[in-house]
Design a protein that fits this description.
- Helix 1 runs parallel beside helix 2, helix 3 packs across helix 4 and helix 3 packs parallel to helix 9.
- With 455 residues, the protein is α/β, with parallel strands linked by helices.
- The chain is built from 14 helices and eleven strands.
- The N terminus is likely disordered.
- It has two domains: 137 residues, no CATH class; 267 residues, Alpha/Beta hydrolase fold, catalytic domain (Rossmann fold), CATH 3.40.50.1820.
- It comes from Dietzia timorensis.
- InterPro entries: AB_hydrolase_fold (IPR029058), Esterase-like (IPR000801), Mycobacterial_A85_antigen (IPR050583).
């Protein structure tokens, strides 16, 4: 098995920022490695990254100790090198941070073709806490999922609260609603058009967050979405409080993640609530988008009810449920939050898991205009600027985003084969974090909002 090796781990000056990407070299992996020298630095930076790198080899150099049947995937599909000289440059021509160099070294040791294994070792080698800290879509204060309450017997709005946020120019309300199906309360952020006369006729864009489903949502605090939906006279809707749920319909209640019936909530219950609150509109159109866990979920919920969604968009997501890469991605989301995968769609390999494998059922999206975006995991300038002092962010972000790139390429091919109208935006650099989600999300808005906007 070949490994991706960094051509040179050397610091460059600001004058090198325009240089072309360093070429990746392949070599046969062996029992020993000639590691490049490491610069000294703060305790816990280079040293910890080197430990991560060496420990990772024992798990992924020959596939995985956890999964000996891990698939061999193609190298990053666009042929982009996993590191550019520009990425290695310090902002003022100084040496890059030791943590950045150490993390880059760790990434360079991951064998091409073992992205599923790389996803597995994140929780094993780094530990769940390190993975959670290191990935923007996974980070959050946590959420205590309520147990089903048998006294909740109908879907209704219990409370509406006007809220303000520095990122939102008005029109934000938080609706506390009950779900008859899940027998629980859900806090839903609702972003209303400024013109009240246009609210009844407005179309809807759902936003599905990453694995912790933050409250307040990433849509509210980290994206341009709230103001863009308002300007387009579209109702933005961001439900919260579904950590590790995959925003999907679970077969069984889970001791840690509660009762999850999100397909029903998004396509039946909340549309009824909107009609009750804003006036019935049988012609209302719906769109759904999300990042990370929410990206795969957005396309999943659209495929689960063909024709309901006018548009669906995924930013840095995975859409397969039957490949090892797709399964391990879901496992990382669910099991790090204490969930039992079997409670979702039954045992792996069951008919439900196969039915949910979107690349095999891309035709279910035939009536939906689809957007997808992904990067490569390669460290870009913005990644280095934001996260260069934290190897956990860069290493876990590399593995996860490289995986989403393969998932996105697979889904893109399936949509092409099925003749589904779609757009795919691929970025040459970017780890699995908001430095990548933000430009991908902005492109998603460019594609989706015109399909939902009012004059």
């Amino acid at each position: 098995m070949a490994t991706v090796a960094v051509g040179a781990l050397v610091a460059t000056t600001v004058g090198s920022l325009g240089a072309s990407e360093a070429s990746a070299q392949s070599s046969n992996s062996g029992d020993s490695l000639n590691l490049p020298p490491l610069s000294s630095g703060p305790a816990g930076s280079v040293e910890s990254a080197e430990t991560i790198a060496r420990s990772s080899l024992g798990l992924i150099a020959n596939g995985s100790l956890l999964n000996e049947n891990a698939p061999t995937l193609a190298p990053l599909s666009t042929g982009v090198a996993p590191l550019s000289t520009a990425s290695m440059s310090g902002p003022t021509g100084s040496l890059v941070t030791p943590a950045l160099m150490g993390s880059t070294l760790a990434m360079s040791l991951i064998p091409v073709g073992s992205l599923a294994s790389g996803t597995q070792i994140l929780g094993t080698v780094l530990g769940p806490d390190a993975v959670t800290r290191g990935v923007g879509s996974l980070t959050g204060p946590g959420y205590a999922v309520p147990k089903p309450d048998p006294e909740i017997t109908k879907t209704e709005v219990l409370n509406k609260k006007d809220e303000t946020n520095p990122n939102v120019d008005g029109g934000l309300q938080v609706w506390t609603v009950t779900s008859k199906t899940m027998q629980r309360k859900v806090d839903v952020e609702v972003y209303l058009p400024t013109d009240e006369k246009k609210r009844q006729d407005a179309n809807v864009l759902y936003y599905l967050d990453g694995v912790d489903t933050l409250n307040p949502s990433g849509f509210r605090t980290l994206t341009s979405g709230p103001n863009r939906v308002r300007d387009a006279n579209v109702i933005g809707v961001a439900p919260t409080g579904a950590p590790g749920s995959n925003w999907t319909e679970w077969n069984e209640d889970d001791p840690h993640l509660g009762r999850n019936k999100w397909d029903t909530f998004l396509t039946e219950e909340f549309p009824e609530i909107l009609d009750q609150q804003l006036g019935e509109n049988k012609d209302r159109k719906y769109g759904v988008t999300g990042v990370s866990m929410g990206a795969g979920s957005a396309l999943q919920v659209a495929a689960a009810k063909p024709g309901f969604f006018a548009t669906a968009g995924g930013v840095s997501g995975c859409y397969s449920t039957t490949t090892d890469l797709g399964y391990e991605t879901l496992r990382l989301s669910i099991e790090t939050r204490g969930g039992n995968m079997t409670n979702m769609w039954g045992p792996r390999g069951s008919q439900q898991w196969q039915d949910r494998n979107l690349p095999d059922h891309a035709d279910k999206l035939a009536g939906t205009k689809v957007f997808m975006s992904a990067a490569t995991g390669a460290i870009g300038a913005e990644d280095a600027k934001r996260y260069g002092s934290d190897p956990g962010v860069l290493f876990s972000g590399y593995v996860l985003e490289a995986g989403t790139r393969e998932c996105t390429n697979e889904m893109d091919s399936a949509l092409n084969a099925a003749g589904v109208d779609h757009e795919t935006f691929l970025m040459p650099t970017g780890v699995h974090n908001w430095s990548t989600f933000t430009p991908g999300f902005d492109k998603a808005m460019d594609y989706m909002l015109p399909l939902l906007a009012q004059e």
